[in-house]
UniProtKB/TrEMBL annotation:
<dbReference type="Pfam" id="PF01061">
    <property type="entry name" value="ABC2_membrane"/>
</dbReference>
<feature type="transmembrane region" description="Helical">
    <location>
        <begin position="41"/>
        <end position="64"/>
    </location>
</feature>
<protein>
    <recommendedName>
        <fullName>Transport permease protein</fullName>
    </recommendedName>
</protein>
<feature type="transmembrane region" description="Helical">
    <location>
        <begin position="128"/>
        <end position="155"/>
    </location>
</feature>
<keyword id="KW-1133">Transmembrane helix</keyword>
<feature type="transmembrane region" description="Helical">
    <location>
        <begin position="161"/>
        <end position="186"/>
    </location>
</feature>
<dbReference type="InterPro" id="IPR000412">
    <property type="entry name" value="ABC_2_transport"/>
</dbReference>
<feature type="transmembrane region" description="Helical">
    <location>
        <begin position="251"/>
        <end position="269"/>
    </location>
</feature>
<dbReference type="GO" id="GO:0046677">
    <property type="term" value="P:response to antibiotic"/>
</dbReference>
<keyword id="KW-0813">Transport</keyword>
<dbReference type="InterPro" id="IPR047817">
    <property type="entry name" value="ABC2_TM_bact-type"/>
</dbReference>
<keyword id="KW-0472">Membrane</keyword>
<feature type="transmembrane region" description="Helical">
    <location>
        <begin position="198"/>
        <end position="215"/>
    </location>
</feature>
<dbReference type="GO" id="GO:0140359">
    <property type="term" value="F:ABC-type transporter activity"/>
</dbReference>
<dbReference type="InterPro" id="IPR013525">
    <property type="entry name" value="ABC2_TM"/>
</dbReference>
<keyword id="KW-1003">Cell membrane</keyword>
<feature type="domain" description="ABC transmembrane type-2">
    <location>
        <begin position="38"/>
        <end position="276"/>
    </location>
</feature>
Length: 279
């Protein structure tokens, strides 16, 4: 007869281990990323194409229109515009990467692997945590590649070591927030195609902010939206950190937006996952 009673603790092999289970799920997502590198290459490719397009095709004209005391030729305008547009491309890289997060979540949902995980004796939180951590690793790799390409095409940041460390920390915060939002978008999607489309506004929002042109050049209604949407203070904070310029209130506003997006994405993701578990 078993000596285990209902009042006592469960046996060690029946206890949940969130950290161990999360590490297992992280390894699963990393292995899938390595096994299918085409997804990562596609997510990196779009920001790189936009970077080359705006710097080499449009940079001379757009850079000359940024303003300044002296006239700027095409080469000088292109160099100035590379410094201006790089932060927007960096943010677009994060947004593009988290689009892959939504697709991965939707694939797991439609293929039934999430349902199988729910029947296994693992911590529920580990399933979503593995996706979040894996996506953040993928985003950091993508950012390193895109920043490297930006440096090759003329991006010349003036930040020192502290500025680069602050930039890295800030990008981690932004990525964490957008990843949790994409986890929720992936769960709410009924198909992989829907999951690939729902996060698309995240990729387009830098165009409707201060990422590619100053907001002062926009019509009144669009300028109001551009100045108050969340990606504008994020871009301005990145620009200030990379170019060693004061960020002002943009830093606090950007962090506040990140906190709201991260908390909202986490609570929405948790609710969706628990709701599906109870069905």
């Amino acid at each position: 007869m078993s000596t285990h009673t209902l009042a006592g603790p469960p046996p060690a092999d029946l206890r949940f281990h969130p950290l161990r289970d999360s590490a297992t799920m992280l390894r699963r997502n990393v292995k899938r990323m390595l096994r299918y590198p085409s997804m990562t290459l596609m997510l990196i490719g779009m920001p790189v194409v936009f970077l080359l397009l705006f710097v080499y095709v449009l940079g001379g004209t757009l850079g000359a229109g940024l303003g300044g005391a002296a006239p700027v030729d095409a080469a000088g305008g292109r160099a100035a515009y590379a410094n201006y547009v790089a932060p927007a491309i960096i943010l677009m890289t994060v947004a593009s990467t988290v689009q892959g997060t939504a697709i991965s979540i939707a694939m797991d949902m439609t293929e039934g692997i999430i349902t199988r995980f729910r029947t296994m004796h693992i911590a529920r939180v580990s399933v979503l945590t593995g996706h979040v951590l894996g996506s953040m690793i993928q985003a950091m790799i993508s950012l390193a590649v895109v920043i490297g390409v930006a440096l090759l095409v003329g991006f010349r940041p003036t930040a020192g070591l502290v500025g680069w460390l602050a930039t890295a920390g800030f990008l981690l915060v932004v990525t964490f927030a957008l990843v949790w939002l994409s986890v929720a978008l992936g769960q709410v999607s009924r198909s992989v195609e829907t999951a690939s489309n729902l996060p698309m506004p995240l990729v387009l929002l830098p165009f409707l902010g201060s990422g590619f042109v100053p907001t002062d050049s926009m019509p009144a209604g669009l300028r109001w939206f551009a100045e108050y949407q969340p990606f504008t203070p994020i871009i301005e904070t990145l620009r200030g950190l990379l170019m060693d310029e004061p960020v002002g209130n943009n830093g606090w506003i950007a962090l506040a937006w990140c906190a709201v997006i991260a908390l909202g994405g986490y609570l929405w993701s948790k609710r969706l996952f628990n709701r599906e578990s109870s069905n």
